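Quick illustration, no need to memorize.
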Amino acid sequence: MFLSLVLILFYVKVWPMVDTVNNVLQLGNEIFLYMCIGIALLFTNYTTDPNHRHLISIVYLVFLGFNVTINVILILYSIIVMAIKEFRERKEKKNRNKTVP
């Protein structure tokens, strides 16, 4: 948990990635990991009631599904943005080649 907290502080302070989307994705994933470590502590003998453990596992799985969904959406968004940018660059290059005799 300490290392995860240090990485969260590093991502907030340094902002190491090139673009904002990747920085937010890395920071979000690290926060998610920190929270999952905290939830995993509840699966030990600290929680003795099996019904509570079952409810905690459902929350854990919903949390995991939410994180995976957000990651997939951001990755697809990045791919679509790159594809649109590439398409526009090719179109501009093609138009420049047509106008030059």
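The radius of gyration is 22 Å.
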